[in-house]
Design goal:
Strand 11 and strand 12 form a beta hairpin. The protein contains 13 helices and 14 strands. It has 2 domains: about 280 residues, Spore Coat Polysaccharide Biosynthesis Protein SpsA, Chain A (Alpha-Beta Complex), CATH 3.90.550.10; about 50 residues, no CATH class. By secondary structure, it is an alpha/beta fold. It is globular, with a radius of gyration of 21 Å. Helix 1 packs across helix 10 and helix 4 runs antiparallel to helix 7. The two termini are about 40 Å apart. A 7-stranded mixed β-sheet has the order 3-2-1-4-7-6-10, sandwiched between helices. Strands 11-12-13 form a 3-stranded antiparallel β-sheet. Strands 5-14 form a two-stranded antiparallel ribbon.
């Protein structure tokens, strides 16, 4: 059986629902997992009987008693990417999982991906580069946005990855899990950007790695300068003449609009696609989930956790040992230690 999973918090449930619905439409035979690094807000319950997900893995399922001290050292983006390696290893351990596909929650599928599943008969790991065509020398802005962006943030976009459940696929997943447990942080000063840049090394460390250059996979703002969308006479969505398999609707809002306008230019079909996606996300939004909700973004008393406090905690083994329940408050808590010994609680959460 093919298993697919995505990773999100409840503030991204609306996007994840659109992903799950489109996966279900294209591949009703797949098993779809929600990996949720969050707890629901009061008054909301995720009812799987009303969702397109088949099953849920929580961060507690993945890390057990290690969850609180491990998770405290991550901001929301770091946390949702860091769990991907552990989830991959757990799903590949299932005897019914023959092949495994990961999608970011802000992706939607538009055509079946049978070719992808067939390629996993010969490949163990499939990655998509951010770009598959070079920018012209004359377009300096595109070079900076796209090619320099790939140098800074990773050659491959880890909003998607596909793995065969074979020795090399499992070896990759174990290595990826190891790195993401300890090093899935936004630390560009040392050359690390969450999970992505680690996979620059995948073709060096592993065999049977397929670099997927088909323009219909992982279409997004970072490659729109070289990809054009159209419809054939039967209404099939095409990218550079190939079927559009999935679109990555990254940064829904002003930033995404700016980058789309910059590189889609007069390709009106792209704007129509974004209009459709906004409507889908709006329809999938639950009013019981506060905007920006993340249970682990705050101490137990509701005070926001500044990123600098997370960085300090993860950098010091003595603090992790002394305060194994860092979200707690009151006497003897890590929050109390921060108040007495630092000014970090006065900083905004980031």
């Amino acid at each position: 059986m093919i298993h697919a999973f995505t990773s999100f918090t409840y503030s991204y449930l609306n996007r994840a629902r659109v992903l799950a619905r489109t996966v279900r439409q294209q591949h009703p035979e797949w098993m779809i997992w929600a990996v949720i690094t969050d707890k629901p807000p009061a008054g909301f319950t995720l009812d799987l009987s009303q969702e397109d997900f088949d099953a849920v893995l929580t961060v507690d399922d993945l890390f057990g008693t290690e969850t609180a001290p491990w998770l405290f050292g991550h901001d929301i983006v770091e946390a949702c990417t860091a769990v991907k390696g552990k989830a991959a290893t757990m799903l590949l351990d299932r005897p019914d999982c023959t092949k495994l596909v990961y999608f970011d929650p802000d992706i939607a599928l538009f055509n079946r991906m049978d070719d992808l599943i067939g390629w996993l008969d010969d490949a163990s790991i499939i990655l998509t580069p951010h770009q598959t065509d070079p920018e012209p020398r004359s377009d300096r802005r595109a070079i900076v946005d796209n090619e320099v962006g790939s140098l800074n943030y990773g050659t491959f976009n880890l909003g998607f990855i596909a793995l065969a459940n074979d020795d090399e696929g499992r070896r990759f997943a174990a290595w990826w899990d190891d790195r993401l447990r300890d090093w899935c942080h936004d630390r560009q000063e040392i050359g690390v950007f969450v999970d992505q840049k680690w996979c620059n090394l995948a073709p060096c460390f592993f065999d049977r790695v397929k670099i997927l250059r088909d323009p219909g996979f992982n279409v997004a703002s970072w490659n729109l300068s070289q990809r054009r969308m159209a419809f054939d006479p039967d209404g099939l969505a095409l990218i550079n003449g190939q079927p559009l398999r999935f679109y990555h609707f990254t940064k829904l809002g002003a930033v995404g609009d700016t980058m789309t306008q910059r590189y889609a230019r007069d390709n009106t079909e792209i704007y129509e696609l974004w209009w459709w996606y906004r409507q889908q996300v709006t329809d999938a939004t639950s009013p019981d989930i506060p905007q920006g909700w993340w249970h682990y973004g705050q101490f137990d008393d509701g005070r926001a956790i500044p990123k600098a406090a997370r960085e300090l905690y993860r950098s010091r083994a003595d603090l992790r040992s002394t305060y194994p329940a860092p979200f707690g408050t009151g006497a003897g808590s890590f929050q109390e230690w921060l108040r007495k010994n630092t000014d970090l609680l006065d900083l905004p959460q980031t």
